[in-house]
Design a protein that fits this description.
- The chain is 60% helix and 15% strand.
- It is an alpha+beta fold.
- The protein folds into 2 domains: 236 residues, Beta Polymerase, domain 2, CATH 3.30.460.20; 63 residues, no CATH class.
- Strands 1-2-6-5-4-3 form a 6-stranded mixed sheet.
- The chain is rod-shaped.
- InterPro entries: CorA-like, CorA_cytoplasmic_dom, CorA_TM1_TM2, MgTranspt_CorA/ZnTranspt_ZntB.
Length: 302
Amino acid sequence: MIKPEKMINGTKWIETIQINAEEPQILENQYGIDEDIIEYVTDKDESTNYVYDINEDDQLFIFLAPYALDKDALRYITQPFGMLLHKGVLFTFNQSHIPEVNTALYAALDNPKVKTVDAFILETLFAVVDSFIPISRGITKKRNYLDKMLNRKTKNSDLVSLSHLQQTLTFLSSAVQTNLSELNRLPKTHFGAGADQDKIDLFEDVQIEGEQVQRMFEIEMQVVDRIDHTFNSIANNNLNDTMKFLTIWSLTMAVPTIITGFYGMNVKLPLAGLQYAWMLTLGISVVLIVAMLIMLKARRKM
C-alpha cells in the first residue's frame, strides 16, 4: 500500500506498507526508483545496511526491527524496514507491517524538534532501537517466572517456554548488534558528512541507546543460558537417579527369580523334599537381597 504524500518540513515523504505486485511499477514510473532498489528494500531476508549511490545521489537505509510471532508468549523474530532518499524525496518501506516501525515514524513526524529529513531518519532509528527495551523487560519477567517454576518442579511446558525465550533472545540480540554496528558506521558515511552539532548530538543519542539495548540483551542471554545449563544438569541428575533406582530394583527382583528358578527344575535338589521348602527358598531370597543391598550401600552405589 502506497499512502498519500506527507511533508517533513518541506521534504516529501512517501510511506509504503506491504506493497503488492503492482505497486513497484507505480514507484518506478512515477518516482523513477530503480526496480533493483525496490526489490532490495522490500526483501524480508535483508540485513542491516547503508548504501550511497554516488551517481544518483540516493541513500538507502535498512535496519532490523522486532516482529512479534506471538506477543503474549514473547515469541519474536526480526524483520527489516527501509528508508530511501531519492531525488529529495523520502520513501519508507515497511513490508512486514511492523507496528514498532509505524509508531517510530509517526513519533518522529510529530516531534517538534525534527526540522530536517536527516533528523527525521535519526529520530525514527532512535525510536526503533528503543522499541527493543520493553521486549527485554518482558523477557526478564518471564525468565524470572520460569526460573521459579523450574526450581519447584520441572515441566515440559516450562522447558519449551525457556527454549522459545532463547530463540527470541538469539534473534533480537543479533539484530541489536548489527543495528549498532551500522549506527556506529553512519557518521563516517555520506549521510554523516558535514554534520552540524544538532545532527552529531542525534548520532550520539541513537548510538548510546543502541549500546544500552545491546548490554541489556547480552545480560539476558547470559542469564538464560546459565538457567538452561543448570536445568539440563538437574535433568541429567534426575535421570541418573531414576536409572540407579531401576537398576537396584531389577537386581533385587533377579535374586528370587534365580532361587525359584533352581527349585522349579524337574530334578532332585537339596532340601526340596522338606514340607516347608517354599519358605526356605523365600528366606534364602530375602537373605541374599538384604546382603546385596548392604553391599551396594557399603560401596555407595545407593
